[in-house]
Amino acid sequence: MNPKYEPISHWMSTPVVTLDPNTRVDELLQLAESLGIHHFPLVDASGLLGLVCTCDVERAPPEQAVAQFARRSPVTVRPEAMTHEATEQLIAHEVGSVVVADEEGVWGIVTRADLAAAVPELMQDVHCAYCQANEHLQPGAAHTWICRSCAARDAG
Predict the structure, then answer these.
(1) pLDDT, tens digit, for every residue of 3-52?
(2) 81 shares a domain with 16
């Protein structure tokens, strides 16, 4: 079967590590280091509230709640979505991960790196315009991508 048309559930990381919105920045960073992950959906009793990446809290005070740095409308796909649909959402919204969720809750997460490994042809144009990195990208000029390191170098 063509990986583009496989359910995203074949590629998502599960179980997904979710955090309470009141989790402190230092707790998130310790957890990220110990587990080797960078993207955390924020969940409370009402459901999915946001998404925070370690790069979002890089310079944040350690005692601050991670909710202050979260993307409030995380990009989501349903568990039955196909891989190409998740890839299209990731590219269209210029994000590093897509949360796999439905009305029952958060089922998993799929990152840019997961999708690049699953279907490299869909992600071939998603890399830093300067150094070709494929992580921690943000929109650059003229519909390009730029990594955090190159963006900082350009700003300095």
Answers:
(1) 777 899 888 988 899 999 999 999 999 999 999 999 999 999 999 999 99
(2) yes
If phi > 0 it is left, if psi is from -120 to 50 it is alpha, else beta; for residue 143 that is: left
Residue 36 CA, distance from chain mean position? 14
Phi first, then psi, for residue 25 (nearest 5°) are -55, -45
128: helix, coil or strand? Answer: strand
Residue 9 near residue 108, CB atoms below 8 Å: yes
42 and 19 in a common domain: yes
What CATH number does residue 29 fall under?
3.10.580.10
Which amino acid type is present at position 47? G
SS3 82: strand
**Residue 62 and residue 15 share a domain:** yes
For CA atoms 60, 28, 66, 76, the dihedral sign is positive
Provide the domain limits for residue 156: 125-156
153 has pLDDT over 90:
no
| Domain count within the chain | 2
Q: Per-residue pLDDT tens for 124-138?
A: 667 787 887 777 777
Per-residue confidence band for 92, with pLDDT thresholds at 50, 70 and 90: confident
